[in-house]
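Model: Ready when you are.
Researcher: Fold this.
Model:
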Amino acid sequence: MRRTFAFLGSILLASSFLEAQEAAGEKAAAPEGAEALAKKLSNPIADLVSIPFQFNWQQGYGVNDDLQFVLNVQPVVPFHLTKNLNMIARFIVPYISQPEISPGVGPVSGLGTITYSTFFSPVGSGGLTWGIGPVFGLPMTSDPLLGGGQWLVGPTAVGLYQTGGWTIGALVNQQFSIADTGNQDLPTFSQAFIQPFFAYTNKHAVTFTLQSQSTYNWEGDPDQRWTVPINFLVSKLTRLGPFPFSVQAGGGYYAAKPDVGPDWRLQLAFILLLPSAK
């Protein structure tokens, strides 16, 4: 119960901090174009370069209900292949600090598996945006506690609709193991990722997002396959020198998880934006 109250208090504190920043930052509306740029951040395949640094604290991990820390560096780079087709490259590079997962197993820290996705997205009309392509898992360690040491491949897709200040969509992928990094005789890996998201951006370039980053492990025991966090996030677009800059804070509760999975999480992200020149 104390953890639940602590989690709710952290969310309210993050929200209050962002609202105070907005009120103190000149009681006027955000600069022209900021709202549209903030709205683009809700689109995983928007036509702008972004460099997010996402800090995650996940409590209740392992047999002793300890704290796991994950730093994700997630650059997104669009390429204009033709006037009607974009290619968007997305990376997720995780650094993981993980407590003891079972007696005598852990703690451990280091780089995890890099996820690289390529989306081919037609230049749309109206509010509908979609893209499809391949996703790859690039092993950066042979430690199975951090990434499994396997090469992964599979399909990925994203679709979303934007109208007014609203963004509604989902990103999905499926990864399969195709080889390991040595003679480790590792078990087969097959995992689905499902990320539905609902976001609203107001005229002050503040965005409120409800989303999940769920995974389904096809190879796990039937009652250990789902990991389903429900996350609420608040972000504010500001500036870092000449560049647009977004600060995001929030957290989530795990509605479903394996026995050793976390109970709740806090998230803080800093996102540098480099809008593409047309």
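Researcher: Now this one.
Model:
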Amino acid sequence: MKQTPCEYIVWYGLPYIRKEISESMIHKYGLSFSEAAEKLGVSVAAVSQYLSGKRGKMNVSDEEIKDEIDKSAERIIKSGCKIVVSETCKLCKLLISKKIFTFK
């Protein structure tokens, strides 16, 4: 059976977005793993797996996307987990518009 675009996003896009936001929160903004996990609404183990490369293995080199991820991380840090969904959706739409996802 062919994978739907939504399945592809859940399996590849969402982990990539969470990985990149986690990395930005920790490396750029100095949050701990537990602080980043709390802001994103995921477990500390998930953040650890994002940063170790076990989850979110997609590689995207587009600078506009990286810049938007950093901005989303900053907004989530300031506003808390109440905006995680809207920021994630915004980033997903950007990835789709730039044809980063190749739906199979």
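Researcher: Key takeaway?
Model: DSSP finds five helices and no strands in the chain.
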